[in-house]
Amino acid sequence: MTRPFTLLIACLVTQFSFAQSWQYTITLSPERVHVSLSVKGNHTDSLAFKMPTWTPGYYQHIAFPSRVSNFKAYNEKDTLPRNGWTIKAPENFTLEYDVRADSDFVAAVYVDSHRATLNLTGICMYADIHQPVSLKVITPAGWSAATGMDKKGDYFQAPNFDILYDSPLLCGHLDSLPAFKVRGIPHYFVGLGFADFDRTAFINDMQKIISIGVNIIGDIPYKHYTFLDIGNGHGGIEHLNSTTVTFTGQHMDNRETRLRYYSFLAHEYFHHYNVKRIRPIELGPFDYQNGNKTKMLWVAEGLTVYYEYLIVHHAGLSTASECLQQFRSSLMAYETKTGKLHQSLTQASWETWAEGPFGGDGISYYDKGPLIGLLLDLQIRQATQNKKSLDDVMRGLYKKYYQQLHRGYTETEFQNMCEDIAGMKLNDLFQYTSTTKEVDYNKYLAYAGLRLEPGTYEFKTIAHPTPMQQTIYHSIF
Ligand SMILES: [Zn+2]
Question: N or C: which end of the chain has fewer CB within 10 A?
């Protein structure tokens, strides 16, 4: 009986005495980030340091390793023996290197004399070790830094490298829109200077968008959320408690522009559920060297497009006809390309690493994904007399796979969840995800009393809809 007890004590002492500290200090200057990593209490003989080759959320390789120069590893006495970035590691040591920071792009690293966009996947090397990391940023005078990470003293804190890499920083002379709360949780919108628009009206609308998004899942899993706005550019990248977005605030008095911005912001926001927490099983743990391929980006991205259309509409920021027009745009983008004849949704997802996010010669899951989302929602509503919907599927996945099992879902598990909620087999519908079969839209649109006008792809209401068709229509539109 004493032996296990002694061992336990020994383990505790061992863990305590081997507590490590990994502290990054990054110093910004135009087109360059100087990186210093101070490791204390290391107990591994050698450490192989690596740079990620991609940023989760952007499924393309980025040549981050080739942007590293001036790599050095030393302790208080000596330069350390090394082979490339693999070092013979004493208990305490320091790494230093520079990173080229001239890529002005939402997924990369950029510093100029006014601002910095810091994706830490392009800055911080990792080794195969699970370890809390802290990070200090030394900026030009007068700048500040915004990020989703919490701060202790001068250091931002991440419990592991996954969270560090999930927490980009925006630095510069930052401008903040008024903070707002949803269900008591603060939300921030930080940028580098916005165009002249009605900030109060915008924030009120953002609060509506987030409330509607939250109501779909019914739970807020973060303590604070930050929109990091890099201004000009294209696209955004989603994270657990922040998102990097490209928003200038220009032409917000134009209804079409405003709707486009709101859809985009709703999309990036809803991703903190769909893809960051409700996720394909392959998208975690991340392989920062090789990337993670999945056939389910049509759910992770495509259904996020479905929800961006609906969230903005249910927030009262688009009319039914504007919402239907968004579906029509997706439909035309999909139906007017020949890619639909040779590439399925699951193939488009799998091939995205080679073809780029918008599909190359094939199709884009951003186009066909929301259409399948609509058909799925219609089918579930029709099968359950509108008592259940796609929202129940998303909530079910969130509860089962994110909250209970702490993992992603497989293709089969996703279909099973849809079928459980619908109370019926959905093979007819799911064949549109894995084959190139021509989609019979009208079969499903009829459940909401809708049909497609041949040739124009316009959504029309049928004559004399039944009460159930009207109920389903009004639940969505
Ligand atoms: Zn997306």
Answer: N
Amino acid symbol at 47: L
What is the number of other CB atoms lying within 10 angstroms of the CB of residue 281? 17
Domain(s) labelled CATH 1.10.390.10 in the chain stretch across: 175-270, 297-445
3-state secondary structure (DSSP) of residue 162: helix
Per DSSP, 41 falls in state S
Query: Ligand 1: distance of its center to the CA of 106 in Å?
Result: 13
- Please list all protein residues whose beta carbon sits less than 5 angstroms from ligand 1, which is an ion: 301
- Please say whether the structural domain 18-165 has been given the CATH code 2.60.40.3650: yes
pLDDT > 60? residue 5: no
Copy the structure tokens of residue 30: 């135009």
Rounded-to-integer distance, Cα 154 and Cα 158, Å: 13
Q: How far is the CA of 157 from the centre of ligand 1 (A)?
A: 26
Find the 307 Cα to ligand 1 centroid distance in Å: 11
- How confident is the model over 25-66, as pLDDT tens digits? 999 999 999 999 999 999 999 999 999 999 999 999 999 999
Which stretch of DSSP H or E encloses residue 216? helix 199-217
Ligand 1 centroid to Cα of residue 242, in Å, is 14
Class of domain 297-445: mainly alpha
Spell out a b/e string for 324-357, using b for 16 or more CB atoms within 10 Å of the CB, else e: bbbbbebbebbbebebbeebbbbbbbbbbbebeb
- What class does CATH assign to 175-270? mainly alpha
What are residue 315's phi and psi, to 5 degrees?
-80, 0
The residues, any chain, with a CB within 8 Å of residue 25's CB and separated by 6 or more, are 35, 36, 37, 38, 135, 136, 138
d(CA 437, CA 366): 18
C-beta separation of 203 from 215 below 8 A: no
